[in-house]
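User: Nudix hydrolase domain-containing protein, Oryza meyeriana var. granulata:
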Amino acid sequence: MSSDPTPPASMEEDPGSDIEALIQRLRLHQPRPSPYAAGNPSAVVAPSPAAAGEQFRPRRAAVLVCLFRGGAGELRVLLTKRSSSLSTHSGEVALPGGKAEEGDADDAATALREAKEEIGLDSALVNVVASLEHFFSKHLLVVVPVVGILSDIQAFKPVLNVDEVDCIFDVPLEMFLKDEKRTSEEREWMGQKFTIHYFNYEKGSEKYVIWGLTAGILIHTASVVFQRPPDFPEQRVQFNLPKYSRECSTMP
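Assistant: Predicted structure for Nudix hydrolase domain-containing protein:
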């Protein structure tokens, strides 16, 4: 399978066909306040007696939702398939990204650094235009989607970190608003029910399943970009943060 994304061509008429107008609109996008941010009452957790004066807050991570023009003018997004040798989420589809590090100036810096490390994407090629609503992962991470526009896809020459990534591919962003090749199931976590979505995608002889947190982020991104809700019911919940515990204080 080739690791080269689809080359760009002419643009079709769609809600984001004028890339400059899309950039300006996304720059003005205001996500709703994060339920997991400092200062939000739901994000403050009670300290345990054994940790007087301390409060657990989840670690922060960021992913890069990198958009570019495909061969038919459609908006596409870069995705990776994680290495089968990784200890967590091995072989799963993901957006480039990872945990924030001390030297990162902000969420965009985290997402761009991780994209550089994972797939060799030069941050100079990416026009960061927005940060979206925060998500909460099962690993107790607050995940911030950072949207970037890759105007010159031909300038991007992927260099994969084989310890982390098996391959890179791209899909049309609008597919995450359609009820085609999609399945879902209801799950419960932290006492709250939510819907998990699965999208099947084929490219050549390769088959991918895009699901879970990655699918949720892309549904939300597509809704913001195309300014319409998905064609299917989307049940999202605000998870309550766990109380402080020794497990939380020592989590990776």
